[in-house]
Amino acid sequence: MSNAPLLEQFKAAANALQPQLVAWRRDFHMHPELGFQEVRTAGVVADHLRSLGLEIATGIGKTGVVALVEPDSLPAEAPTVMLRFDMDALPIEEENDAPYRSQTPGVMHACGHDGHTAIGMGVAQVLAQHRNELAGRVKLVFQPAEEGLGGALAMIADGALDSPRPTASFGLHLWSRLPLDQIVVQPGPLMAGADKVTLVVEGVGGHGAMPHETIDAIVVASQIVVAWQTIVARSVDPMTPAVITVGSFHAGSAANVIAERAELACSIRSFDLETRDFLVRRMREVAEGVCAAHGARCLLTFTAGVLPTVNSETGAELVRNVAAALFGPEKLAAMKPMMVGEDMSEFLARAPGCFVLVGAADPDGPPNSPHHSPTFDFDERMLSTGVALLAGAAAMYLERAAH
After folding, report:
1. Of 146, 195, 343, 379, which one is the catalytic site residue?
2. Fewer beta carbons under 10 A from the terminal one: N or C of the chain?
3. Is 146 labeled as catalytic in the residue annotation?
4. Selecting from 3.40.630.10, 3.40.50.300, 3.40.30.10, 3.20.20.140, what CATH number does the domain 4-190+308-401 have?
5. Torsion over CA of 190, 307, 395 and 379, rounded to 10 degrees?
6. Residue 195 bears catalytic tag
């Protein structure tokens, strides 16, 4: 592709940074912080960005950091592209016996965000070194609270996409079960939208020996749980992916007391908003119908979570070209869209681009533990790959957008 020499320079610079990338990643891994609590992490990031001479803003979305990389001379109308890196850890007690294991009880980087943050610092350094070869501005967004807490929306509400506004966004997620440096780049849905539904069933409590005088909320709610499973099986087009999971069921207090109240908490997942809205509507209709049949009442509440993560055709094509130029077309891979959620979707919905997966499994070692596992870890050799890939994607996007 055009400007191949610049891509090769990025690759060489990223490879040279590998020891530092590992050091950064292990430091973050030893000091994990939960969503909206990434004070130390954000401080390390901000100090590094300042050392590169970048204009930065802190406290965006509470603990987020935004930096701008741009040439010394640039027209005001020059394009802007955004790169996003998430920073938060999970409430998991680490079981690994690595020298860099978490030093914070009950908190662990079990999804690779420590690697993403290290990659972002490396990308900042590489782009800053080549700032005068860029055809526009690169906005670096270090995001808090990706793990279901709304960090992307918090940053957007605080102006992360303003002044200047990017016209495209790119990001990556290291993947512990994908072979090292295999790169999944594909248009369309990559990850699902994930939303929450809660249901409260109100019956009439009473003595366990006199069920005829009661309306048993547990029996009613149990029938709702079973009936909900027919929605995907019998009401959704079989070619349309959808999931309804009842993850929590709370009711009752004693063996001989018929419960008057039951509470359900559910996760629903889909790849488009039309399917999501259909699931919610049918869940409400089914719940109200079952309750009416038993003389009970219910209240269903929908809480929006994250949008589906959808890559644009042009964004995916650009990253595929960059990945092939940097690492060879044999490193490109495909994967069925997954039902996990990712709030990079909020940026992609406003600045269409591409979110990619980069393999982080040692092909010669034992299988890695899955993400969100207390024994999660990954092959750190992918860190330099991530730096070269995202730096290259940003530069090539700007070159294309400027002409």
Report:
1. 146
2. C
3. yes
4. 3.40.630.10
5. -50
6. no
